[in-house]
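pinging the channel bc i need a second pair of eyes. not urgent but kinda urgent?? the chain im working w is below, pasted from the shared doc
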Amino acid sequence: MDTKVSYAAAELRHLGLLSCKGDEARAFLHAQLTSDVAGLAEGEARLGGWCSAKGRLLATFLVVPRGDEFLLQLPRELAAGVAKRLSMFILRARAKLADASDAWTQFGVWGGAAAERLAALKLAVPQGPMRAAATDAGVVVQIAPQRYLVLAPAAQREPLAALAALAGDAGEQAWLLEEIRAGRPQVVQATQDQFVPQMVNLERLGAIDFKKGCYPGQEIVARTQYRGVLKRRMIRARVGAAAAAGDALFADDDPAQASGTVANAAAAPEGGSELLAVAQISALEGARPLRLRAADGPPLELLPLPYA
């Protein structure tokens, strides 16, 4: 960490990118994702999900327009498979979708001096959460106040790596912890095809447009919203043990059957883990805590989410 100005940085090797280009790329993505891509302007970024026909999330994306191209951020472990499967829906649309993970490098930069440091690298710094700014050196997205995601061509990696080195390279776990504390879930391989979007609070994060036309799973997503059939919700919690996405949660009143699933987890500075998890609402209303991996496992301490 710099002794004069405060910032942290980390290379995000666990993240990948899809690239969607073509005259009908916008229309294609609008017809596939849960969010409004048709109205997504240059200089904006938006979260979105891609669902199966049964309304279960196959991927969550950060969607960033860049000229005639859309960049879709997702876990690198999902990038190739999602690119292949999503491409099957292009049909006759004038659009091309590809896994561009190796062509880009991604860094998280956050803290009071983050904007100053990015500007020193000749990167345009957007003003306001979920705003994006692009130059030849890369795309910067302000994820939250004083927290930025940098997407840069692989050839531009060195200056960003040097920036992270000067900050002591906080590491990917630190960035993941920031995302968990912001209540921003990400579907990973261990949780693919498990959650309806509202289970992971996507509607609260502006990642579902209920006025747009059809997309895969749209009927189930709408029914969940308007008929009040949601039985599971995402929570934020702390546990005094190592946790990982896909770990089961158990409640004392039903020890034989899992009552929830860890969606994302990161190591906590004081030990143990902080996590986002999807749990049965009935279990959350119980008097006893949920427990990790077994009915007698480490108890979860529930923490507030930063949004209603």
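so The chain has a mean pLDDT of 95. and The radius of gyration is 19 Å. — does that match what u expected or am i reading it wrong
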